[in-house]
Amino acid sequence: MAVTEPAPAAPTVAHEGILRRQALRESAARTYARSLPIVPVRARGLTIEGADGRRYLDCLSGAGTLALGHNHPVVLDAIRKVLDSGAPLHVLDLATPVKDAFTTELFATLPPRFARHARVQFCGPAGTDAVEAALTLVRTATGRSGLLSFTGAYHGMTAGALAASGGAPDVRVTRLPYPYDYRCPFGIGGERGAELAARWTENLLDDPKGGVPAPAAMILEPVQGEGGVIPAPDAWLRRMREITTARSIPLIADEVQTGVGRTGTFWAVEHSGITPDVMVLSKAIGGSLPLAVIVYHEDLDCWQPGAHAGTFRGNQLAMAAGAATLAYVRENRLAERAALLGARMLGQLQGLAANHPCIGDVRGRGLMIGVELVSPEADAPAPPDPVLARAVQQECLRRGLIVELGGRQSAVVRLLPPLTLTDEQAAAVLDRFADALAAAERGALLRTESGPSH
């Protein structure tokens, strides 16, 4: 039986007032607040309590930032220790014991072959700042300006990151096909589709008339997150590593959302066994606070002092929270737990799909899960159904479940629960999702049967 969170008798005045003032004062660019009109006042683990007294299961987790959920005791304790110590909170890029402890823990989690020759650059506080740093690094090291990126990518909202994501035109960026089994750009899918994508890349780079600017790097996500939770096939990732190595093109792995155990290994590149030249890290590495770094091979470390700077590179609270998070995930084997629980949840969602034709595809890795909703009455391949996806998201919210939408047309329901998710919580999440999906389907059917309004 579905678990339904009872709605309060009436929203509090404070809740309504805060939402009203937000709508009046904040910009039209706000995003999450539009689809999730809640006012969080308390949170712990998977659960958020709103100002109206309602409780929610949070499967957004700060867009993947909260590896341990909200206000985990080890994170709070780490922050309190820094506050109580009298240590400076703002130190630019100076060395501190807190920073040294964070860097030591970070290097302990990296793939050993990568860690042996690694350098780290602390960037501005957001993942997009780290992407910009990575692009500056490789362009400085190679003397080239071109960039290889992929359809469906998301790397941030600053100029260079947007260009790499396809959000802004840039003649230096060459867009390549990313394997998307459900909607294969070659109409084949599977291993054959991924191999064709690799051949396309290889042939384009080797074609003297291909029109590709000399690439300073290739940047990719091991699992496209905002693009719709699309895991890259391991064999294809290995091919990208072979192609770039053979042509002396640095490979940048954007692990902003996939890192720190999210996909079932500590870093998502470990599934394929590849060693990138650069890793872009943010979100979960700060333990819920803003922190972003790039880790890269020492051979690339040829930029000059100040080549990439930023005032807020020395956030001591974030480093303390991040070190505590990294250690907790590592010591408690939460990546392995994410792999097991994620596989179980994927299997249950695939079972749900068997009875709901509107579910076109269920995919993911670890606790990074996507459910693509489609219009089942259309000819195959069924087109995405963003209207149904929005309805499912709202029905989830009514039942006390917070989910995000992604994908090319925002038709993929995304689940990013904390790695501390229990079996009982996972069952509650899936129950609420199943109930919300059925309700959204009923609403869609009623609208179809009633026809257009007059």
UniProtKB/TrEMBL annotation:
Lyase among keywords: no
Coiled coil: none
InterPro entries: Aminotrans_3 (IPR005814), Aminotrans_3_PPA_site (IPR049704), Dat (IPR004637), PyrdxlP-dep_Trfase (IPR015424), PyrdxlP-dep_Trfase_major (IPR015421), PyrdxlP-dep_Trfase_small (IPR015422)
PROSITE patterns: AA_TRANSFER_CLASS_3 (PS00600)
EC number(s) on file: 2.6.1.76
Enzyme class, first EC level, given as a word: transferase
Keywords annotated in UniProt: Aminotransferase, Pyridoxal phosphate, Transferase
Assigned protein family: Belongs to the class-III pyridoxal-phosphate-dependent aminotransferase family.
Protein name: Diaminobutyrate--2-oxoglutarate transaminase
